[in-house]
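User: Watch each token:
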Amino acid sequence: MKKIIEYIVITLFFCASLIYTKNITNVAKSNDPIMKNIKNVSDNYKIESVNAIVTDEDVIPGVNGCEIDIDKSYENMKKINEYTDKMLKYKDIIPEITITNIFDKYISNGNTKERNVSIVVYIKDNIDLVNNIVDVKLNVFLDSSILTNGKIDISQNKRIYNGGNNLKYDDVTIEWINDVIEDNYNRPKYCLNIDRNDDNLLLCARNKMHTISPKLVVTSINTYKIKESITNGNIIYFDENSIHKLNEIKDFLLKKGYNIVYLEELLSEDKCKK
């Protein structure tokens, strides 16, 4: 019995020592000039989050907020034992409403806070139509007929996505095309739905894929109207019949100061530098 009491006393003493050491360390840390500087500037770097906008049919991405990760910033600066803004570390403030888990709505636009747009191309037959366009980031939705035999040669600056069977989707087509894309190109995150076929929307949602439904659809005769309509966050759509107009639209976008980015960049809610 005496031994048990001794063990209990020793254990209690050890725990008390740990708590005391931790408290002393926390006090020293809080009084460290580096920590004080980090806390003093933390409010200046905080950016509030913005909720995604959800309507009956559509969702527009929001923006993650951003704040200084005080502990990681402190640990980073202690390596050189001085404060510097360049070594600040950040963490996300996640909005209450985010597109991350919203798959049953159409995405027709990205966030409008930055001067970014994306170009989407649907290719059913002739892959050379996009391989000849080498100086612009493109999101290429390939028809199943093109991927029947597996990987094909794609020029640089392309992201490859699932174009279904003539823009119609079913579980089997989604599964095998996604496998080909993921094995050879990039993550197959998106479906394309120009006609807003709700059956396609729900099927893609069931497979945890966001459905892209661009409002700006380029034809051979409407480029002037398209140019007048372009704003921040737009997704601009071309098919094989209008792709010859792509360079004209691209030159217009660059002249007006737009950045042409991939869909995953346009729709990303993560704007917080790490």
Summary: Confidence is low (pLDDT under 50) at residues 6-27. The domain at 103-266 is CATH 3.20.20.370 (TIM Barrel). The longest strand covers residues 116-123.
